[in-house]
Prior knowledge:
Radius of gyration: 18 Å
Distance between the termini: 20 Å
Number of domains: 1
Shape: globular
Oligomer: single chain
CATH architecture: 3-Layer(aba) Sandwich
Number of strands: 11
Largest sheet: 8 strands, mixed
Order of helices and strands: EEEHEHEHEHEHEHEHEHEH
Strand content: 25-35%
CATH class: Alpha Beta
Structural class: alpha/beta
CATH topology: Rossmann fold
Amino acid sequence: MTLQRSGYLATISPDRWVNGAYTLTVDGTPQSHVNLDDPTQLFFEYVQRMGHVIDQLGMPGEPITAVHLGAGALTLPRYVDATRPGSRQQVIELESDLVDFVRAELPWSKQASIRIRHGDAREVLGKLPPGLRGTVDLLIVDVFSGARTPAHVTSIEFYRLAVSLLAPGGIILVNVADGPGLVFARSQAATLAQATGNVAALAETQVLKGRRFGNIVLVGSASELPFEWMPRLLSAGPHPSKLVAGAELREFIAGAPVSTDATSTQSPPPSKGVFQLRPGGD
């Protein structure tokens, strides 16, 4: 279907290799992969890393309060519901007809406490009920227009607004896509660090070395990050992987500028063919 707001083409296609699994593609870019038969199965490597962080929150299986900026096919809301029954979740998505398309083709459990809010992620974030502020255990920022993250959700002003939702010990997870040089990712790490005080980066080794385009998961918190998580996050895969924190993260940032509303830019476009599906979905 063609999305009314952006004009992008959205398609849902079955996974050839996994029964019950599907891929949502928007503007030729794979956005989400979900397994309706097993929502705990996470396919994209950066989503798996996010799942590993989620698993470390609180006690295993304990319900949490989560806010997701960007819906896609609701891969992580489904994962949270399956692994932490009773969790309260809010999902914010700009493209209303995308949510309707996913709901019709890939319905989620009616028992899940997942509320969809329509609109721009930053605008809706500022209008959430006051009682939600200071109560969110998990805030996920995975906002893309096609293959790029809009500039207005990359600034220090945006991150301060987002972090104001977090409960003591709450975690913000940010999906950052970048390529060689990591100019955008390093600036995002610097910006999130200024907003939270504590940041770590998790990604495939070659991506963190700036040798190829890929996704870096930034983990931020106003509380000190629990470094006892780190070996478990690395051992859980996918491999090879690396986690950068502490002095190594400060070296990674290395003077990168903090992004502001006045200076922010959208994420760089991927090289042709990096995320794009070939004709026929091969």
